[in-house]
Design brief:
Layout: H1 5-10, H2 12-44, H3 49-98, H4 101-104, H5 109-134, H6 136-151, H7 157-200, H8 202-207, H9 211-237, H10 239-263, H11 269-310, E1 331-338, E2 349-356, E3 361-366, H12 372-377, E4 387-392, E5 395-396, H13 402-408, E6 409-412, E7 421-422, H14 423-428, H15 436-445, H16 449-453, E8 462-463, H17 472-484, E9 490-494, H18 502-515, E10 520-525, E11 536-541, E12 544-549, H19 551-557, H20 559-579
Parallel strand pairs: 3-10, 3-11, 6-9, 9-10
Antiparallel strand pairs: 1-2, 1-4, 4-5, 7-8, 11-12
Helix pairs in contact: 2-3, 2-6, 2-11, 3-5, 5-7, 5-11, 6-11, 7-9, 7-10, 7-11, 10-11, 15-17, 19-20
Length: 580
């Protein structure tokens, strides 16, 4: 929990104020049994109504003061815990944003959601409990012990038996509970992951009528979460009754021994009543301590999970603010090799050397898993190469600030990602300062303007989550417009026209040729027709360059390219002939 030091320093003063209020409230509670003892021994025993009323007035005054302190403690504790949790959640979210893809690949997405929500809430609840009850419990317990010993030293041996037993129970509670709640949080991760996966693929589930299968799978994960939660809570539930039983045995012993003492004339009734009250307060404080330790067990498990994310360090190093003198338009791959994860695995890219100058369009084609997307992901430093260098404007990207690189690079990914909001919001996501004219110009190049103005509210039409109310081709064109409005030096189109018909794709290619005369453009495609007119075509096979050249040159000289051409174009021609 080292990361909490920052928040302890920041919220130390209001935290201390809450502890002051708690201490005053506990002192008020400690005075009540002593006043009750005096009411019984001085007022009731002597039939002195004046003493009863006077001491009763003091009890009311002490109670009112305790209520004021309790209210102040609640207000401060709620304010501090809420602000602390909001800041911790914000810091965690910002930390996740600063991590590289190699960092994020080590965490499941559902687990990150759980850490941002449930885990932060567990730590918040513990912080709140620290200010509201944890500080009060030891003050009340120790104070009651001192007051009880002062009242009757002869009964104090009861504490010598009760306190060690309760302390042992709390220690066992802490020892057993932590691993159980760590498992509960892991099960919650899996439950969130299952829900996230189902909601993302709900259309596929409906299309294949797999409700029974999904329900059964969810039932299994849900049952596992229930079992682990029940095990943890059942185990923790044993300790509070055991603590209560131990203390109540102590109270029974006090009443029995006190009754004997009163019968022999060695004790006063008021002292016995006060002693029992102090024993009850000790019971209450020990129960609170046990509850706080249960909260601590859950908070510790959650804090360790939060700490795992906050302890991650981005392996990417760069010189702050450095940018190439001549712009970033020229892209060079020089002997680049890359591995996902540990470097002892099979490399995804092997000794790739390639260059793309401003005004040039490079097409990249190859079979699934050839490394096409991985190659272009090295340009904006989503990952760093294991060997070789990727240069922008003649400078190794490892020396450049990733933020500055991404200002000049626009990517249209394979999987179209749109956000809830209007079409205009989604296009301006590429450049929030873009004017309406610039947005429309980008949409026209992307062949999106016509269908946008045909929607009920045009560019102000609201999209559902993920653009659910648009077709696949429409979403791809908005995604392309979002990249173009950025006015990048480097444009990467990663198989982003797969849902477009041939006529629309041809118009898009013509518009992009005019647009990309001053930028470096990479076009990744599965369909050979999408890269045929590129200035150069790169054929990737198993992470290696199997050929570079124009369409005509590769068709004549490269076996792999020729096979791809025949498998696609010839089949299309045969299908067209059959249709005629």
């Amino acid at each position: 929990m080292v990361f909490l030091a920052k928040y302890i320093r920041k919220y130390g003063k209001p935290f201390s104020l809450a502890l002051l209020f708690v201490s005053c409230e506990a002192l008020c509670d400690l005075l009540q049994p002593a006043l009750i003892s005096r009411v019984i021994d001085e007022g009731v025993a002597n039939r002195d109504m004046g003493a009863v009323l006077r001491l009763g007035g003091w009890m009311l005054l002490v109670t009112a003061a305790g209520a004021v302190f309790a209210s102040g403690r609640n207000i401060v504790a709620s304010h501090v815990s809420q602000r602390f949790s909001a800041e911790l959640r914000g810091d965690l979210f910002r930390k996740i944003q600063t991590l590289s893809f190699s960092n994020l690949d080590r965490f499941d997405k559902a687990s990150l959601v759980t850490r941002l929500t449930n885990d932060v809430t567990q730590v918040q609840n513990f912080a709140n409990g620290m200010m509201r009850i944890f500080a009060k419990a030891p003050i009340l317990g120790i104070g009651s012990l001192i007051m009880a010993v002062r009242l009757s030293p002869s009964l104090s041996w009861v504490f010598a038996v009760v306190v060690p037993v309760v302390g042992l129970l709390i220690a066992v509670n802490l020892k057993v509970g932590f691993p159980l709640f760590a498992k509960v949080q892991g099960a919650l991760d899996r439950l969130n992951g299952m829900m996230r996966e189902y909601l993302a693929g709900v259309r596929v589930v409906k299309a294949f009528n797999r409700f029974g299968y999904e329900s059964e799978k969810f039932g299994g994960v849900n049952a596992d979460y229930r079992r682990k939660s029940e095990t943890a809570l059942r185990t923790m539930a044993v300790f509070n009754p055991l603590i209560a039983l131990t203390v109540n045995f102590g109270i029974v012993a006090v009443i029995w021994l006190g009754g004997v003492g009163v019968g022999e004339g060695g004790m006063q009734v008021g002292h016995i009543v006060a002693f029992v009250n102090y024993m009850t307060q000790i019971l209450f404080s020990l129960m609170m301590i046990s509850m706080v330790f249960a909260m601590f067990v859950r908070a510790k498990a959650s804090a360790s999970r939060i700490g795992e994310v906050l302890a991650e360090s981005n392996p990417m190093k760069w010189r702050e603010g450095k940018r190439p003198k001549d712009g970033m338009g020229k892209v060079e791959f020089d002997g680049v090799s890359f591995h996902y994860g540990e470097n002892d695995g099979e490399p995804v890219l092997k000794n790739v050397s390639l260059a793309c100058s401003p005004g040039e369009t490079v097409g990249i084609i190859g079979s699934t898993g050839a490394g096409k997307t991985t190659l272009v992901h090295l340009i904006p430093r989503f990952y760093d190469s294991a060997e070789g260098a990727v240069r922008l404007g003649g400078v190794d990207v490892k020396e450049l600030d990733p933020g500055l690189i991404r200002e000049k690079v626009a990517i249209v990914p394979q999987r179209t990602v749109l956000f809830s909001g209007t079409i205009l919001d989604n296009i301006r996501f590429g450049n929030d300062k873009a004017s309406m004219e610039e947005v429309e110009a980008a949409a026209r190049i992307a062949q999106a303007h016509d269908f946008i103005v045909g929607t009920p509210d045009g560019y102000r039409t609201r999209l559902g989550q993920g653009g659910v109310n648009l077709s696949g081709g429409q979403k791809q064109r908005i995604s392309i417009a979002r990249a173009l409005v950025r006015k990048p030096d480097i444009l990467i189109l990663d198989d982003c026209t797969s849902a477009l018909d041939a006529a629309t794709e041809e118009r898009l290619k013509e518009a992009l040729r005019a647009y990309s005369k001053s930028i470096a453009c990479f076009v990744i495609a599965q369909r050979i027709a999408s890269v045929m007119d590129a200035d150069r075509i790169v054929v990737l096979e198993n992470g290696e360059i199997a050929g570079i050249g124009t369409h005509a040159g590769l068709l004549a000289q490269n076996r792999i390219y020729r096979e791809i051409y025949r498998s696609q174009i010839d089949k299309e021609m045969d299908a067209h002939a059959s249709g005629e």
